[in-house]
Design brief:
single chain; Neuraminidase; 5-stranded antiparallel sheet; 4-stranded antiparallel sheet; globular
């Protein structure tokens, strides 16, 4: 599990109804850094329940993407930017849902009494990886983008979480507890070969491949609190990117590979931040009394 733990709360309702709403001023602060552009999606409870939002980095404007009677979390945009997948709560369990990039046309992709969550698109947009405990413990699965052809990828008595597809589509990085503590591993989708990349006695997780496939960002507690770290794709050259008194977690890459976004509580509340990959120029992106979590850079 991540440092945040189980944030999953109860919610009523089983139908999805989505709309787009503009959030009032003060929900984010525009960056005066001309280096930053593009948009970042994130999850927030600023409207009273967990919904998906998008912030424009150039203007600071925040747009609400989903507006439901049920929580929506962990959004991931398709490579062409036209679709968004997320996990949504239906009664006691979570399933993977999909909407168009404007929040319209909701589709429930999984319908399972277990928990299906943390979806991630394949680089070609044809498949979605996710984690599920449908076979008794959390494992990594894939399915076609329409929800068909569900296939189990990992097979282990431990827990496997948070899949991240390599840009060439050949591997999936994931977080696992199989050696007694959480590590970042990869699995080759052709051969099934698994490699422990971090091999550290501290907590490591939430892996994210760089756009060129050469590096992997991840979160680690090896220095006493959660920070963003980076390593080469083979696990070498592990080094710390952030250095804050709070917890930083869930890194995601900008499309050009120059920046990382992540969530941090260094100011007392969970907000979205952006930093250069060399650890310079940390910028606070959101500034709201609510919690803003799980950033995902739009393509």
């Amino acid at each position: 599990m991540s440092h945040i733990g189980r944030w999953l709360g109860a919610a009523a309702g089983v139908a999805i109804a989505v709309s787009v709403a503009q959030v009032g001023s003060g929900a984010a602060q525009p960056s005066e850094d001309a280096r930053l552009s593009g948009r970042i999606g994130f999850t927030s409870d600023r409207a009273g329940d967990w919904e998906i939002y998008v912030v424009d980095l150039a203007t600071g404007a925040v747009t609400q993407l989903t507006d439901n009677l049920i929580p929506d979390l962990h959004a991931s945009w398709s490579p062409d930017g036209t679709k968004v997948v997320m996990e949504s709560k239906f009664g006691p369990n979570w399933d993977i849902t999909m909407v168009d990039s404007d929040g319209s046309n909701p589709v429930r992709l999984t319908d399972n009494p277990a928990w299906d969550y943390h979806p991630c698109w394949s680089p070609d947009g044809k498949q979605i990886a996710f984690q599920s405990d449908r076979d008794g413990n959390p494992e990594i699965y894939t399915m076609d983008a329409d929800g068909s052809n569900v296939r189990r990828i990992t097979h282990n008595d431990a827990s496997d979480f948070h899949p991240s597809w390599s840009p060439d589509g050949r591997k999936i990085a994931f977080q696992t507890s199989r050696d007694g503590n959480f590590e970042v591993c990869t699995i080759d989708l052709r051969t099934g070969e698994e490699v422990n990349l971090t091999n550290c006695p501290a907590y490591d997780g939430w892996a994210a491949w760089s756009p060129d496939g050469k590096q992997i960002a991840f979160e680690s507690g090896r220095d006493g609190n959660g920070e963003i770290w980076m390593m080469d794709a083979d696990g070498s050259n592990q080094h710390r990117v952030t250095s804050n008194p709070g917890t930083n977690s869930h890194p995601t890459w900008s499309p050009d590979g120059r920046h990382l976004s992540y969530q941090g509580d260094q100011y007392g509340n969970w907000e979205i931040f952006v930093i250069d990959v060399d650890g310079k120029n940390e910028t606070r992106i959101t500034n709201d009394p609510a919690c803003d979590w799980w950033p995902s850079w739009l393509p």
